[in-house]
Amino acid sequence: MHKHYKTDIAKIDAEIESLSKKYSSIHSREYIRQLFTTVIKLYLEEADEHDLYLANVTLKELRHIFRIFSPYRSVKKVDIFGSHRTPPDSQEYKMALEFAQKIVAKDFMVITGGGGGVMEAGNCGAGKEGFAIKIQLPLEMRPNPFVCKGEKLINVNYFFTRKLAFIKESDATVLFPGGFGTHDEGFEVLTLLQTGKTLPRPIVMVDTPKGKYWKGWLEFVHKHMLKNSYLTRNDDSLYRIVYSVDAAVEEVAGFYRTYHSIAYGKELTVIRLNSRINEKILNKFSKKYKDILADGGITPTGPLPFEVRNKLFLHLPRIGLPFDKKSYPRLIALIRDINKLTN
After folding, report:
1. From the centroid of its chain, how far is CA 230?
2. How far is Cα 257 from Cα 272, in angstroms, rounded to an integer?
């Protein structure tokens, strides 16, 4: 945190300091102080009415989103994307509905955009375990009839706050065939995963058994992006294309079979596990993935200091690696190898 972030007006900074002490805990105080400082800086820098409106609505929407999802943070969630034009009698709709039913049975919750088509199927299959983050569009003024009314329906004004919520509050992304919006969400999460701006997660593209939608997408990716060196072959580890509901469920649930979660320290990256891995196997991983290790190998380790301070999953076993913090597709490949151990 930038503790020197101030207005540099002594009287104002003192008032902000007083307010932050009054309306914060010890651990949240610096964040609250900086939030107050940002608001006052908008005034001091004479932000115009439109800028203030944008900042105000954005912060209010994020606060509301955080509040709604907070009680469910311990439950893993899956984003389901796809066309709002997909008809109920189509194979894609039926597969999305079945996927939602089966992934909920695996103790996941579902998040959709609240519209029709694939989103409607997702909410129908998820039932009370489904959320919808809805944005007002001319083609989709009302949420689909299967959205849980009440607080699991979240209405927002901006796509960017909705997209942030989709990423922040979920643990997996599943894409059915769709239009610009589906690809927008897909490429967004692929980019964030490739650059390490979101935590590792499965990205699963689902097609019908004889479908060619994602096959055509993959041909484009390989022919125009990979061939021209806009991507590397390692980037293929970021996603999986499947042709059945059961395969999609396995890709999502299987990603968290042995792997639980991750924590990035200054020098050591810690992978939390659902079960221990013996050191002989870790030595093999150290050799296979030496290209992403800055110095040393992969070894059993304890929690990082901030994990202890915040009591984060302290009961789980861990492995530590000196990850170079740039080879994120290879990190995903390592996680996939870890999950194969219990197959």
Report:
1. 24
2. 12
Kindly tell me the burial class for residue 93, based on how many C-beta atoms sit within 10 Å of its own C-beta (0-12, 13-18, 19 or more).
Answer: buried
pLDDT score for 342:
63
Beta-carbon contacts of 97 under 8 Å, excluding residues fewer than 6 positions away, are 121, 122, 124, 125
- 80 vs 249: CA distance, rounded Å: 12
* Angstrom distance (rounded) from CA 168 to CA 65: 10
Query: Which of these, 177, 233, 229, lies nearest to 205 by C-alpha position?
Result: 177
Q: How many residues does the chain have?
A: 343
Cite the DSSP H helix spans in 130-244: 159-168, 180-194, 213-220
Residues in the chain where the model's pLDDT stays below 50: none
Does the pTM of the predicted model rise above 0.85? yes
Strand arrangement, sheet containing 259-264: 259-264, 269-273, 318-321, 299-301
Residue with tokens 């979920």: 170
Q: Identify the pLDDT of residue 140.
A: 64
Amino acid at 162: R
Residue-wise pLDDT for 139-159, tens only, equals 667 899 999 878 899 999 999
Tokens representing residue 157 in the block: 């004004």
CB 199 within 8 A of CB 205: no
> CB–CB of 131/154 below 8 Å?
yes
Alpha carbon of residue 262 to chain centroid: 13
Three-state SS for 16? helix
Name the E strands within 212-329.
240-242, 259-264, 269-273, 299-301, 318-321
Give per-residue pLDDT as tens, 82-112. 999 999 999 999 999 999 999 999 999 999 9
Of 4, 32, 28, nearest to 18 by C-alpha is 32
What tokens appear for 37 in the block? 């400082």
Q: Which two tokens stand for residue 244?
A: 């059945």
Decide: 301 and 293 in contact? Cβ < 8 Å: no
Cα(40)–Cα(139) distance, rounded to whole angstroms?
39
pLDDT on residue 7: 97
Tell the residue number behind the tokens 């979101």, with chain if given: 198
Q: How far is C-alpha 233 from the geometric centre of its chain's CA atoms?
A: 23
